[in-house]
Amino acid sequence: MTDTTQTAVLPAEAPAAPARGYWGGVWARLRRDPVTLVCGAVLGLLVLSALFAPYIGLHDPYQGSMVSRLKPIGTEGHILGTDELGRDMLARLIYGGRLTLFLGITPVVAAFVIGTTLGLIAGYVGGWANTVIMRTVDVFFAFPSVLLAIAISGALGAGIVNSLVSLTIVFIPPITRVAESVTASVRQLDYVDAARASGAGDFTIVRVHVLGNVMGPIFVYATSLTSVCMIIAAGLSFLGLGVKPPEPEWGLMLNTLRTAIYINPWVAALPGMMIFVTSLCLNLMSDGLRSAMNVRQ
Amino acid sequence: MSASEMGLPDKGGPRQPLVIARDLTCHFPVRAGAFGPKKVVRAVDGVSFSIAKGETLGVVGESGCGKSTTARLLIGLTPATGGKIIYDAQELGEELSLRDLRRGVQMVFQDSFASLNPRLTIEESIAFGPKVNGVDAAEARRIARDLLERIGLDPARFAGRYPHELSGGQRQRVNIGRALAMRPRLVILDEAVSALDKSVEAQVLNLLTDLRRDFDLTYMFISHDLNVVRYISDRLMVMYLGEVVEVGPAEALYERQAHPYTAALFSAMPSMDPYARTQVPPLAGDPPNPIDPPSGCRFHTRCPFAEDLCASKKPRAVTLGEGHQVACHMRDPASGHGKAAA
Amino acid sequence: MPRPRLRLDMLGYLLRRLVYVVPVAIGVSLICFLLVHIAPGDPLVAVMPIDATAEQEAEMRAAYGFDKPLPVQFGIWLGNAVTGDLGRSIATGRDVATEVTRAVGNTLLLAAAASVIGFPLGLMLGFLAGYLNNTVWDRGITAVAIGGVSTPNYWLGMVLVIIFSVSLGWLPSMGAGPGGSGEWTWDWAHIRHLVLPAVTLAVVPMGIVMRTTRALVADILDQDFVQALEAKGMTRLGILRHVARNAAPTALSVIGLQLGYLLGGSILIETVFNWPGSGYLLSVAILQRDLPTLQGTILVLAMFFVALNLIVDLLQSLIDPRISRA
Asked: What confidence score (pLDDT) does residue A148 get?
């Protein structure tokens, strides 16, 4: 460690990065990462088009036509063809992004809130609270995530709410585990001791000193789960467990179009393509975010 | 509450020691192996000492001797399993609450980086303590800026910086400022300058000396570096395996060490005189495990003068001169040790 | 590999790990047991054939103990499960345990084939990418790995069917044998059916193994001891051996975990390919709301996963002496 100070009043050359906050630095690093930026743009486009789908001049995603079923890609008026009921694929794919993204993101957000809370309690309080929470988490870890999602959804039955519930339950244990280990390592740092020594209560210490320093790694980890969550969510619909017809949703569309692979294979594969592209962008974004935030895993 | 009310007012008068520790113990239970029996680590085992108002007590000993644990006991970061702490004539747990004790005692840790929250500016870090204790935000900010000035960091340039934007020496100054923001009377410096470069260390030591005078502070200075301890301490306490083996005025101890362990520590100290030859055999090996400390005198396994007596009987503390006490059979005429001065 | 030596502390670790399985297994059973109870409606209705008579209803109620408190029911259910009685399918009336056993056999076959394809490839490519850190090769391999991780495997299955069955007509797309035969034999007619589902199933775990191995190898090459070995004049091959030895325990644990996820991932793949395994059984059970079958299949798969984790942990403690000391 070097120290350039020579006198009690410090010279101007003291190691001085411009005083900007932590997030300023993260943003500066992200801006120099083209892959992450492109992925962010693609995701942004997907989200925006899904949000504003009714206003961008698309066909009605529910309105089919018996005469124009399973038209191939490039058909006049249906650029991406039509599905097995003659509904416009482009419209259904864009509308489908609404539910698929919703089902991919909401459970992770919910699990992030619940898992962080549980992990903070387990990691900060320790002792009995830790044992109860972490041993329960261990039990849930004894299921492969897809299996657990299918088990809970299968028991609850099809439906959007049931999907959300089962996916949230699936992602609480991994987030709790990460939150617990990060919290336990932050808790034993000297600045937490120093805060305790200045008479701060546990609640204040967690709020001021622990939360800010554990959120980053947990957040990065949670973003890396989003793509998995979306794939499993669409998978549930694919099995007939998630969204019910006639709602447009990528997994469900993939399921109903399965029979069409002999007639119009590439149209049938389109919804999966959307899942793939979205999940790829989510993964690359999460990687970029991780290195920009200097989180090691 | 205003800033001036934060510290604790004097209760016992100038002759009352600021801190008296009596028979402090700290035992951790550990489990050896998967199904092994539960054992006890005797990190601190019956330590008694006092620190007078305005003095600096240096604490030395090898790593693992219980120096840092003793410090953490004094500030209530680790609960003591036995013994008493009396702060300015008030006993902790009786007249004095832990919360009040912490208003009177603060600590600076060795790792300057780990002791600052990376997400807070240094001004926020210093202002945190006062704020927690009810000082309003503007006043806490003023305290922080005053202190930055006092520790040699221009508030206009440094207040908004984050810890990673400072050097090690600057960070340690901030940690000192953070401790002082609580208006403590005792500051525990746990290896506070050990991680710094020598030149920076000297500056920080000078700062500490100035602050002691200006803020009327009492220090407990823990270090493994005897040269540094000598520079700043009035009295010295030597610890070995969770016990105090010798305590006395710093100069007297530097002149003549009564305990063979102290002598060995001092002989290992590099000297400026190339012709000086050490007379004392150096310490061999590592200290024994505090889980099963040796019987009798804990030092007997490494002591060149050990006799059978030392393994069986615990030495009592003997007073040699003004405030100079030692726990060694050789200094106790009644012990029966072969080398005991009759 | 360092030669495994069985020391006392290691024995302690093994014992502790074995004992630790018991509460986890009980927890897993509890979750499976509760599946029937979180299902909307009367649990009795959930496990009873739709056309059941009043007599059958009373019989079922007594057999499952639905009139007794929940903990007692769990005890009865667990006792039955341990003795191999997982109830009867609502849809077919057949014994769930028999059905599951046959299906799990097929799933394991598929998972094993996928492991043989995915893990060696993942390890090799990951090792290569880590070794050629920050070269074009590394980027290419990393891109493939991220692609693999991001693929919804049920969609990949469809794409492969479109290419190799529909367009080229090389491989069959449905079932585990010619004419939908349930009996597996090791001949080309059957193996042809295995190729597409196994490849599909292998992609995601391969991507994950690749990513982990790449990061692991790059990390190890970055450590001081590698520089020391280079300075000592050790050959490339020698250094690679050191790296491999250091990467082995972590790589093994990732593979073990992925082996378990093959069991989960196969559910969707089997549905795509009509592969007569546990996943197909599950998806049929879901369509028919056949809760006893669902419950039994999940229980068996989860127990497989628990056992697998145990084996991986034990193996890992044998090749990595640091673990048992923790």
From this structure: 92
Instruction: Classify C322 as helix, strand or coil.
Output: coil
ipTM: 0.84
Round the average pLDDT of chain C to a whole number and report it: 81
Pick the CATH number of B16-119+162-331 from 1.20.1250.20, 3.40.50.920, 3.20.20.70, 3.40.50.300: 3.40.50.300
% chain C with pLDDT above 70: 87
* CB < 8 Å to A191, chain B: 114-117, 125
* Nearest-neighbour CA in chain C from B46: distance (Å): 31
Give burial (CB, 10 Å; 0-12/13-18/19+) of C316: middle
User: Hey, are the CB atoms on B35 and C12 less than 8 Å from each other?
Assistant: yes
pLDDT tens per residue, range C263-272: 888 888 888 8
Tokens of B328: 């060694």
Q: Does B196 touch chain A (CB under 8 A)?
A: yes
Which of 13-32 (B) contact A at CB < 8 A? none
Q: What pLDDT band is residue B280 in, cutting at 50, 70 and 90?
A: low
Residue A295 reports pLDDT greater than 80: no
Q: How far apart are CA C314 and CA C316, in angstroms?
A: 5
Query: What is the spatial distance between Cα B175 and Cα B196, in angstroms, rounded to a whole number?
Result: 13
Q: Record the tokens describing residue C258, joined without a space.
A: 């992925």
Which pLDDT value is given to residue C9? 64
Q: Which residue of C has its CA nearest to B33?
A: C9
Partners of A7 on chain B (C-beta within 8 Å) are: 203
Q: Is C18 on the interface with B (CB under 8 A)?
A: no
pLDDT tens string B123-142: 999 999 999 988 899 999 99
Q: What burial letters (b/e) apply to B204-227, b meaning 16+ CB within 10 Å?
A: bbebbeebbeeeebbbbbbbbebe
Domain with CATH 1.10.3720.10 in chain C: 103-271
